[in-house]
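>> received
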Amino acid sequence: MKNACIAALLLLSASPAVAQTAPDAKVASFETGSHGSRDREAISFWKEHGKRANIEYQYGSDDKTVKLAYLGVADCGGEACFKVGFPNKHVLYVTPGTDTVRLSDVADPMRAGKANKYDRTFSWRYEGPVDGRGTFCSVCAQDGKDASAMLRQFFLKK
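>> returned
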């Protein structure tokens, strides 16, 4: 997601004090749907200062952004997951895969049946140059395994 990388670079370059205090900032970004389409969704997980930080959800063709709250670790059908909350109090469960994340509105989507209204798998999103075009994102996870490992380390711990 180009926007997350640009936002990170602007944040880190906006103030020398910020750049000096968050040298370990890192973002793991995932998305589903086609960029620029109405069905597109993206989610970015940030870590700073050796601990989890912001979670941002984007949706739609115009990338509307919503800041989510971290609500703690949970059990999703025998798999470790964590909860995130929207400003409207809607809760989703996030289960990291190898290079994906699954977001669901029930803790165990396999047993939820028709009660499950939201269940999507987001793929890791590459942030960097393509065919020599674009800017390298130094704060972005370098591959899906790196992104998923970051989630396990910083978001799956109490």
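>> Strands lie at 26-32, 41-48, 51-59, 64-76, 79-85, 91-96, 100-104, 119-124.
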